[in-house]
UniProtKB/TrEMBL annotation:
<dbReference type="InterPro" id="IPR004329">
    <property type="entry name" value="CcmE"/>
</dbReference>
<keyword id="KW-0812">Transmembrane</keyword>
<keyword id="KW-0349">Heme</keyword>
<keyword id="KW-0408">Iron</keyword>
<dbReference type="GO" id="GO:0046872">
    <property type="term" value="F:metal ion binding"/>
</dbReference>
<keyword id="KW-0201">Cytochrome c-type biogenesis</keyword>
<dbReference type="InterPro" id="IPR036127">
    <property type="entry name" value="CcmE-like_sf"/>
</dbReference>
<keyword id="KW-0479">Metal-binding</keyword>
<keyword id="KW-0472">Membrane</keyword>
<feature type="transmembrane region" description="Helical">
    <location>
        <begin position="79"/>
        <end position="97"/>
    </location>
</feature>
<dbReference type="Pfam" id="PF03100">
    <property type="entry name" value="CcmE"/>
</dbReference>
<dbReference type="InterPro" id="IPR012340">
    <property type="entry name" value="NA-bd_OB-fold"/>
</dbReference>
<dbReference type="GO" id="GO:0017003">
    <property type="term" value="P:protein-heme linkage"/>
</dbReference>
<protein>
    <recommendedName>
        <fullName>Cytochrome c-type biogenesis protein CcmE</fullName>
    </recommendedName>
</protein>
<dbReference type="GO" id="GO:0020037">
    <property type="term" value="F:heme binding"/>
</dbReference>
<dbReference type="GO" id="GO:0005886">
    <property type="term" value="C:plasma membrane"/>
</dbReference>
<keyword id="KW-1133">Transmembrane helix</keyword>
Length: 253
């Protein structure tokens, strides 16, 4: 009886120790795997500790990084950044230059203005300098615009301006008008005026273009005229004188 009782007590103690014993940790399992437990990756162990299995596999097979490919990728991104930045700056500069060029208005004679307009009709804004042709000033009764002719002694161009002319505006004197070259229509050609006026402006009205002025500047002396315009008119004057002299010499001969 005593032996039986001792055996029961021993079995009870062993069962109690088995129930109360703690579950082995990952570190302990790893330690046991290296030292005492070759069956750590048995099916039963994998089911009990899957995270430990996969983390261990990842540590054993680390992903290799291609340093050369990574460097090439960074270099390509850097080059694209530089290219886009350069394109943006270049586009901005082009827009600024085009806008600045559009704002530029050059002093030209009627001959130069028509030549430039024919070469590039999109650039039709000018500061036109020349002499007001005597007898050409006219205010058509059916139009709010004043008309007069500006000449460089070679080319005459009809100018139309809506507004009050400056007090110093005079026929036969220098003038500078700012505006746009436009095609001359039959309606403008047919504006009524005296026979004398028609005769004076016949050359200008027979042309293909007229000048729509937005501003008229005038002064009595030639100092107001831009130097390039004054030089062109003087050159044309000499050319006309030489032609007249040549005709007279031919007639005498």
């Amino acid at each position: 009886m005593a032996a039986r009782t001792s055996t029961l007590r021993l079995a009870s103690r062993l069962l109690h120790r088995t129930i109360l014993s703690p579950t082995p940790s990952i570190s302990s399992l790893h330690h046991q795997h290296h030292h005492h437990n070759p069956n750590i990756f048995s099916p039963t162990s994998l089911l009990r500790n899957p995270q430990f299995f996969f983390s261990t596999a990842a540590r054993r097979n680390p992903k290799k990084v291609d340093i050369g490919a990574r460097a090439r990728q960074l270099q390509t991104r850097r080059l694209w950044t530089y290219a886009l930045t350069f394109a943006g700056v270049a586009g901005f500069v082009i827009l600024v230059l085009n806008n600045f060029q559009d704002q530029l208005v050059f002093y030209v004679t009627p001959s130069d203005a028509l030549e430039k307009y024919r070469a590039n009709p999109s650039r039709n804004k000018f500061r036109l300098g020349g002499l007001v042709l005597e007898g050409s000033v006219h205010h058509p009764p059916s139009s709010p615009e004043m008309e007069f002719v500006v000449t460089d002694l070679i080319t005459d161009i009809l100018v139309r301006y809506q507004g009050s002319l400056p007090d110093l505006f005079r026929e036969g004197h220098s003038v500078v008008v700012e505006g746009f070259v436009k095609p001359l229509t039959d309606e403008i050609r047919a504006v009524g005026m005296s026979e004398k006026g028609k005769e004076v402006t016949a050359k200008a009205r027979s042309g293909e273009y007229y000048f729509a002025a937005t501003e008229v500047l005038a002064k009595h002396d030639e100092k107001y005229m831009p130097p390039e315009v004054a030089a062109a008119i003087e050159k044309n004057k000499k050319k006309i004188d030489e032609e007249v002299e040549g005709k007279e010499a031919a007639a005498v001969a």
